[in-house]
Amino acid sequence: MPKADNKEIVSACIKRWDAEDSRTVYFSEHFDEWILQIPDNIYDIVLRLLEKFEYYSQKSVNRSLYELGRKLDSCETFNGDTAVYTHIPSRKGIENSSIDYLYDYKNIHGVTKYKVAIDLKKMNTEEFENVVVIDDFCGSGGSLKYFLEVNSEYLRGKTVYYLVTYAMDEAITTLHTAAAEYNITLNILYINHAAKAFDDVTITDTPDEARKLIKSFSQSVGIPKDRRLGVFKTESLVSFYGDTPNNTIGIFCYDTEKYFSLFPRSRDDSGTVKRPSPSSMRGEKKQRNIQNYNASIGESLYG
To answer: pTM value?
Structure first.
């Protein structure tokens, strides 16, 4: 199958994402070099994955937060007078996208600061019945599950509305089960959702083989085992203007000394990672093509 035109691929992605910011500029400027890293045996699969890849700029996130507020207000069981709005704190104690989205949501919908809980445990639980949790992405569901667990004493018997731009289908099921264990009523409101990437028949009709090929290439360029299909093997295809979830398939967001990605995730050790140069990638690509050619000649002579 002939290679696709890089400019057409980039143009289609930018048009679909309706975004122009530093991350999409980076994507456009580095796509030619990035695709050189992709070997022929996974080239078609990677392009099909890219066709389903979602990117959310600040503009599209704000639009999503506005739409989520409309969805929340339309819920018959929601009572804004007895609601408190909060985020999922980072377990590392640092800033994260959830708190950023909380403040953005507050400003977009005019939520008073007296209804915003930075520390839910310091709020008077008798004053609220509904807890609105704002987040960007729900991958495995682990973050909210932990939030429900550590706050179960305060949330028991209450209704939690989880507002998220993008949710993975498996996580939705996991979270409803977890909430029931703590006698919490959970409503998940989202703008977009998806199953695991390789379960999508438009990407591949041989998912196990596709996974094996992607994992093999990822291993060869030094992407850690737990990131090759995304953390917890989530197989998500999404990035945001602030960062890329670690649930996203590694070839799109993980940098190593042998490989660079298009939507690199922020990492504590990012300064120590030496990215390969375009010239070295072209040389490696040429060497792979020679090896593939020699292998095909060998098969025709001795197969």
So the answer is: 0.87
Identity of residue 170: E
- Asked if residue 86 lies in contact with residue 116, where contact means CB atoms within 8 angstroms, the answer is yes
The token pair that represents 293 in the structure block: 């050619």
**Percent of the chain with pLDDT strictly greater than 90:** 81
* Residue 98 contacts residue 87 (beta carbons within 8 Å): yes
Count of beta carbons in the 10 Å neighbourhood of residue 194: 18
CA dist 112 and 95 (Å) reads 21
Residue pLDDT, tens place only, 78-117: 999 999 999 999 888 777 899 999 999 999 999 999 999 9
**Per-residue pLDDT for 233 more than 90?**
yes
Dist. CA 105–CA 124, nearest whole Å: 22
Whether 137 contacts 245, CB under 8 Å: yes
Cα–Cα distance between 244 and 255 in angstroms, integer?
Answer: 12
Concatenate the DSSP letters of all residues of the chain into one string. Answer: -PPPPHHHHHHHHHHHHT--SHHHHHHHHHHHHHHHTS-HHHHHHHHHHHHT-EEE-HHHHHHHHHHHHHHHHT-TT--GGGEEEE----TTSS--HHHHHHHHHHHHHT--GGGEESSGGGS-GGG-SEEEEEEEEESSSHHHHHHHHHTHHHHTTSEEEEEEEEEEHHHHHHHHHHHHHTT-EEEEEEEEEE--GGG-TTT-S-HHHHHHHHHHHHHHTT--GGGTT-GGG--B-EEESS---TTB-GGGT---SS---SSPPP-TTGGG--PPPHHHHHHHHHHHHHHHHHHHHHHHHH-
User: How would you classify the pairing of strands 159-168 and 185-194?
Assistant: parallel
Amino acid identity at 2: P
Q: What is the pLDDT of residue 274?
A: 62
How far apart (Å, rounded) are the C-alpha atoms in residues 137 and 168? 8
Question: How high is the pLDDT of residue 283?
Answer: 53
